[in-house]
Design a protein that fits this description.
- This protein is an alpha+beta fold.
- 18% of the residues lie in helices and 28% in strands.
- The chain contains three helices and five strands.
- Strands 3-2-1-4-5 form a five-stranded antiparallel β-sheet, with helices on one face.
- Strand 1 (27-40) and strand 2 form a beta hairpin.
- The longest helix is centred in the middle third of the chain and has 17 residues, at 76-92.
Length: 173
Amino acid sequence: MALLDMQFDQNEIQDAHKNDFDPIPAGTYTAEITRSEIKDNASGSGNRLSLGLKIIDGTHAGRLIFQDITLRNNNQIAQQIGRKQMAQLVSACGKSSVQDSSDLHGIPMEIKVAIRIDKTGQYDPSNEVKKFAAIAGSRPKFSAQPQVTASGQPTSAQQPAAAQSDLPPWQRG
């Protein structure tokens, strides 16, 4: 047996019964990444970037949203969706590439949040991020204009997006 000798006032008890894990209303919020970690998927055949985002203003300031983005998966469609989400996230942070997920921490961005309802009824409703965007009026830190060689051709590292997507991953900038 352990003697705890603890007392609680009514405010503490009421506060303890609030559910801070209820989803926030769907909408657009300003948030920043506070944590990131690569995790293997359940089958071990792929992985995902697991993010913790903190709402940084408004009524829900301080609330956390958790979001996973597929990095590798045997399902090509899932992997393509993940790649698009990563491109959106990196761009929202004002970058065109990223080496380490920690490079995305602490950068304010807009996130469009939806409420996900589990069709099986096994899990409570939760939030999911549907879109990452730069804060309105902020400018990306990377050059929007491709660099060109003396002959006027874009460099391979900064070809237009359409040309980039046609290249194999190892040739993309």
